[in-house]
Amino acid sequence: MRTAFILITFWTLASGLLAISRRNMIHCALALISFFAGIAALLFTLSADFLGAVQLLIYVGAISVLILFALLVTHDASRLGDRGAPFSRGKWSGWMLSALVFVVLGFGLHRVAVPPPPDPAPALPVAEIGRLLVTRHAVPFLAMALLLTAALVGSALVAIEESSEHARKE
Amino acid sequence: MSTYEHGYLIVGCLMLVALVVASTPLLLAACLRPRKPSAIKQATYECGIESKGDSWIQFKAQYYLYALAFVIFDLETIFLIPCAVALNQVGFFAFLEMTVFVGVLLLGLVWEWSKGVLEWR
Amino acid sequence: MNLSDLLPLLRFLAPEILLSALALGALLGEAALSRLLGVEKRQNLLGWLALLGLGACLVILGDQAARGETLALGRGAFVASPFNALLKTAATLAVMASVTMGLRAPFVRHVGENYALVLFSLLGMFFLLSAESLLMIFVALELTSLPLYALAASQKGARRSIEGGLKYLLFGGLSAAFLLFGISYVYGMSGQGSLAGLRDWLVAQRTAGGPGFLFLTGVCLMIVGLGFKIAAAPFHLWAPDAYEGAPLPAAAILASASKLAGIVVAARLLLGAFLPVAGNVLGSPLSWHAGWSPAVAALAVASLTVGNLAALAQRNAKRFMAYSSVAHAGNVLVAFLALDASGRPAALAAPAIAYYAVIYALTNAGVFAAIHALAWGARGDDFADFRGAARRAPFPAFFLLIFLLSLAGVPPMAGFFGKLFLFMAALQADATHWGLAWLVAYALAMNVVALGYYLRFARVLWVEPAEDLRPISTPLELRVALVALALLVLGLGVFPSSCLAAFRTMGGVLLLRG
Predict the structure, then answer these.
(1) Which of A91, C64, C158, C463 has an alpha carbon 20 to 30 Å from C41's alpha carbon atom?
(2) Is the whole model's pTM more than 0.95, yes or no?
């Protein structure tokens, strides 16, 4: 399992690097999808089955569709990167900030005494998640329904008018 | 190796088999085929007609609305699956909650429908 | 749980249920009416219905505040209390002002959705104001912010609206990521989801060698996320563009109710849950502990500097208000540091923060309503467009002057007492050592600068000559809203100490015990 974890980590890191460094936006998007799949695989190796399935369904399944659709409706997305380097002028401050965050988090994680994982790892059954959702976390659960509806309306509102104006012009 | 890891080992083996089955014909073809490129052969194939212009055209933003709605309802299933699994443990009140959850999102769908967001133009 | 247990719950949750019904009703109303009525009629009808519903909400909230009962659900996921009811009342009033502004001005085509988003956002604020658990805080923050992103971008024709909305969305998404990342560390290290549980865990950790570096990192990441929400420098970059691009009614919510909710949740987290890891910025270097207060002190100084100095240079009224809101975030953060040597907050700190947040929300709602009334006849919202506006529309200009004076902190107004209490709390904290005196002195100096630029805006309105002398008429409902807000701002200023006492007796920062 350890080797699998390390291999998947490298795969994920490599996909992430590809996603930010390719010039062709479609390649970036595909690399990003591979990155999402890598995260899902990592969750499976960490015995977080439900989260892994969620990651697959939401990110690999839905968010990637959203990203590819976004490229589809953007004019000439394949050439967006041609105008210049994929990195902006502020790249050095960006790299430095990321390095700083990495050092701080790495230092913190290094100092944490993580207790050895129990074997076999305690799997949280899906039914238990469901039970907690409707009992202890009932208020956030219902707020989530409203949040999703608000997101549905808000996103549709931002996207819709553009198209109806489009239709009027035609 | 625990049973948990064993389960995913089988999944991994299947993925490997799928990868091999899918990629072997392509690799074989790449090795065996004669290599005589010409400009006409490398042109984009478009139903036999000569292709005009760029392959990149801008699609209508309308299509994006489907993707957005899809993501929202995909998320809804994530919340519903665990509740559905736990339904026989939690009783009537939880069922009421789930009904409200689905009902609220259903109202969102009704709105989308009547506003014509879902019309394919 | 039986149905008979459900009924008392409904009484406490009534404002939230009513708001949800209103928001969904606005959606369905739009869906039903969009083919029957024109845009302006729908705007008027749905707007008045929304105002009516919000008025009913006020009545219920007033009843909750008067009854004085508290209820906690799901380990702090929802806490109803008189104090929370008062905060929700202030947020509702600010949103009502915004809805009133939108009644006649045709600024969007999708009217019902616009009202629905406003109501969803207010609902998020309600949940946020009564959330005492990490999970609920995150969900409520998203419910507050998501509709606001869409509202900021709702002026589809204007390029700057889209630009402002996009910037707000990107920064908001980033801040949510920071907050969530921080929450994951905090929860991962402690295993506590409720704020009261976190505080007790931290107190227990004191004897066990402290909560550890990673926990503090998580707290700092959460501060970054909260800093974005309350627009504290250096996380304020979205604010000027979002304020400028958003239609005035949406900008009014951004600047008032959303800010109120952000400040209250920051106080709940920092002065409630994370109080044991406050650390200190006072005293000698020998007694220094690591904690969040140096980070908050840095945010306060940066916000005071950037907000006040940048506001001096603005030429657009909305951008000006954005920088003013950054400066006010700096003011309020000063009181977060009012901790004595043993790490207890000054008695005045939490009530002063709540009082200031309420006053600030009401005053800012008033400023935007008045600007909206003046902008009726103007070409845009640059200062140049408001030149001599007092002669064209003396009524809103007079009220704008009142609100600006309150923001500047001129004595009879509530804004003065808000600032006074904040700085008094900071001085009270460690009075023997002059601990926070440097910060208070700096804040006072910056507030003198602030007085200058608020008066400059007033001068543009009242002294400079108008190019165009045609009078601007102000609709009746907007006049009523202005008068009501001004009465509140003046009234809360006439009885500041009784308000403070009310806030103090109604409960501290956290209501739940662990």
Answers:
(1) C158
(2) no
How many distinct structural domains can be found in chain C? 1
Contact C440, C335 (CB under 8 A): no
Domain with B94, as residue range(s), is: 61-115
Listed range (A7-11, A155-159, C112-116, C303-307) with the worst mean pLDDT:
A155-159
| Cβ–Cβ under 8 Å, residues A134 and B98 | yes
- Determine, for residues B56 and A119 on separate chains, whether the beta-carbon distance falls below 8 Å: no
Q: In this model, does residue A166 exceed pLDDT 50?
A: no
Residue C214 included in any domain: yes
In a domain, C513, yes or no: no
Tell whether B91 is within 8 A of chain C (Cβ): yes
Of the candidates C355, C363, C372, the residue with the CA atom closest to the CA atom of residue C324: C363
**Chain C CA closest to residue B115:** C31
Could B61 and A166 be called an inter-chain contact, meaning their C-beta atoms sit closer than 8 Å?
yes
Residue range C457-481: mean pLDDT, rounded: 86
Range of the domain at C473: 10-505
Tell me how close the Cα of A8 comes to any Cα of chain B, in angstroms: 12
- How big is the CA angle at C372 (ends C370 and C376), to the nearest 5 degrees? 120
For residues C7-19, average pLDDT = 89
- Given the cut 0.95, state whether the ipTM is greater than it: no
Q: What phi and psi values does residue C70 have, to the nearest 5 degrees?
A: -125, 155
Instruction: Please report the sign of the dihedral spanned by the C-alpha atoms of residue C220, residue C222, residue C223, residue C225.
Output: positive
C277 to each of A10, C10, C194, C336, C422, how far by Cα in Å? 36, 37, 16, 13, 22
- Mean pLDDT, range A26-38, rounded to an integer: 93
pLDDT in tens, C400-430: 999 999 999 888 888 999 999 999 888 887 6
- Domains: count for chain B: 2
Any A CB within 8 A of B96 CB: no
Residues 6 or more apart whose CB falls under 8 angstroms from that of C457 comprise C317, C320, C383, C404
Write the pLDDT tens digit of every residue in C327-355: 999 999 999 988 877 777 888 888 889 99
Q: Give the position of tokens 């991962």.
A: C188
The answer to whether C27 contacts B107, with C-beta atoms less than 8 Å apart, is yes
Q: Quote the pLDDT of residue C506.
A: 67
The residue among A63, A132, A157 with the most chain C CBs within 10 A of its CB, best to mutate, is: A157
Is any Cβ of chain C less than 8 angstroms from the Cβ of A138?
A: yes
Position B46 in a domain: no
* Residues A5 and A52 reside in one and the same domain: yes
The residue segments making up the domain with residue A144 are: 124-170
Give how many domains chain A has, as a whole number. Answer: 2
